[in-house]
Design goal:
Organism: Pelagerythrobacter marensis
InterPro entries: DUF4350 (IPR025646)
Number of domains: 3
Helix content: 25-40%
Strand content: 5-15%
Protein name: DUF4350 domain-containing protein
Keywords: Membrane, Transmembrane, Transmembrane helix
Structural class: alpha/beta
Largest sheet: 9 strands, mixed
Domain DUF4350: 60-276
Oligomer: single chain
Strand order of the largest sheet: 1-13-2-3-12-11-10-7-8
Low-confidence stretches: 1-5
């Protein structure tokens, strides 16, 4: 009887389908791009830049305030551009530059909340500006704008009754030889045909226009402001009758006193710097330009925190662990092998598969009869016998190998065997007799 064939040898190593270096490069590029995407999303850098020509401190157009921020920082002040509402609670000079479409109720609530936190400087919008279109026949830079007219802010109506009440925009007469005045200092406006002033408010003026209206001033709201009173040319007030803990609210009616348009003139630049200094009431406070009212606010999220201390250390450890796992997966544990066929070619493999199937189904007793008959025909052919019955075979075997067991006895023992070890023992005995006769 034929035993089960030994297991097939492992197939030879197959050639790599792709260059390992190319695959590694693709994986590294994809990982770096993924991490960079997460960082940019967390940092809010997926949209256009902040230099969009708007009226805020990140804009370098005519209506922006980037030049003022640079000037103050160059003079040694601690200047920051805030994209978070959390900065509203810091003890600092908060400079608000809301656009025309801002919410007046929100601005008023913010100012009211800060009265005992820090001073606030509110700059009213005036210009309507649009970015220079690409098709314009001029050489422009990023954030450049075209001035498209003026108008008082729409949220003034919501602001009335608490702070600013009446604002008007118009031309200044030229009879005085100056456009603005602060004590002994005088100067010109960038566009004297479009000057915005406050005409009616409970406000102490600092800078006035040639028509007597207020260009910049602070509110007379019961607070004790000795520095501002001195700048306004007033006699010192009695601190006992005033609230010494309240911070001032300064309002600049015309943004052309502080914006990039104003910084083109040395006198106006010095005026802007002094207004900021006076608004701090003699204190060395940080200066914060708010960007949230201009739609550039950004809240902290999980992605932002992942790349900010102290969580950036855990993020780096996670990235290193991912890199190690990816490297181990890329290198694997040995070369790749070609997949072997489930059923190999050839008669030997077919016989081996059939034998393995018989072993798995525990049907060895079904092989005893066919195996005995196959041995009978092989022995008869080896002895050149015409007949292969038991009697003829036994006589021929006795003549050829005296003392050998009869074929009929061995075949009967094989047919009667039931257990696997009995079947194998009887099959080996019959095979041993066949080898003696074939030799």
């Amino acid at each position: 009887m034929m035993a089960a064939a030994p297991p097939a040898p492992l197939p030879a190593s197959a050639p790599a389908a792709f260059n390992p270096r190319v695959v590694l490069g693709m994986l590294l590029f994809g990982a770096i791009a993924f991490v960079a995407t997460l960082y940019l999303i967390g940092a809010g850098e997926t949209s256009r830049g902040e230099n969009d020509g708007g009226g805020h401190a990140a804009s370098r157009g005519l209506t922006g305030y980037a030049a003022l921020a640079d000037l103050l920082e160059g003079e040694g002040h601690d200047v920051a551009l805030s994209r978070s509402q959390g900065a509203h609670d810091d003890e600092s000079l908060l400079i608000l530059t809301p656009p025309h479409g801002a919410d007046g109720e929100e601005i008023a609530a913010l100012i009211e909340k800060r009265r005992y936190i820090g001073p606030t400087l509110l700059v009213l919008p005036k210009w309507y500006a649009i970015e220079v279109p690409d098709w314009a026949p001029v050489d422009t830079g990023e954030g450049w704008v075209v001035l498209a007219g003026t108008g008082k802010p729409a949220w003034i109506a919501q602001f009335e009754g608490r702070y600013v009440t009446e604002v008007q925009t118009g031309a200044l007469d030229g009879g005085h030889g100056f456009d603005w005045e602060w004590g002994a200092r005088r100067g010109a406006m960038p566009d004297r045909e479009n000057v915005q002033t406050i005409t009616n408010a409970t406000m102490i003026p600092l800078v006035t226009a040639s028509n007597g209206h207020i260009l910049a001033g602070y509110y007379d709201d019961g607070g004790y402001y000795p520095v501002l009173d001195e700048a306004a040319g007033l006699a010192p007030a009695d601190a006992e009758d005033l609230d010494a803990d309240r911070w001032n609210l300064m309002v600049v009616a015309d943004p052309d006193l502080l914006d990039n348009y104003a910084m083109a003139d040395r006198e106006r630049a010095q005026l802007a710097h002094e207004l900021v200094d006076v608004a701090m009431e003699g204190q060395d406070l940080p200066i914060v330009f708010d960007l949230t009212l201009n739609g550039l606010g950004r809240s902290r999220n999980l992605l932002t925190l992942a790349f900010a201390p102290p969580f950036v250390a855990a993020t780096l450890c996670l990235l290193i662990a991912m890199a190690v796992v990816a490297w181990r997966a890329f290198r694997r544990f040995g070369p790749p092998h070609a997949e072997a066929r489930a059923i190999a070619f050839g008669k030997g493999r077919l016989v081996a598969n059939s034998a393995a199937f018989t072993l798995r189904t525990r049907r060895l007793h079904l092989l005893t009869g066919p195996y005995a008959e196959a041995a009978r025909h092989r022995i008869a052919a080896a002895l050149h016998l015409r007949r292969s019955d038991d009697e003829t075979l036994d006589r021929a075997i006795a003549r050829r190998v005296p003392g050998a067991p009869p074929f009929a006895t061995l075949a009967a023992a094989l047919r009667e065997a039931e257990k696997p070890h009995e079947i194998l023992r009887a099959a080996r005995a019959l095979k041993s007799l066949e080898r003696k006769l074939v030799r």
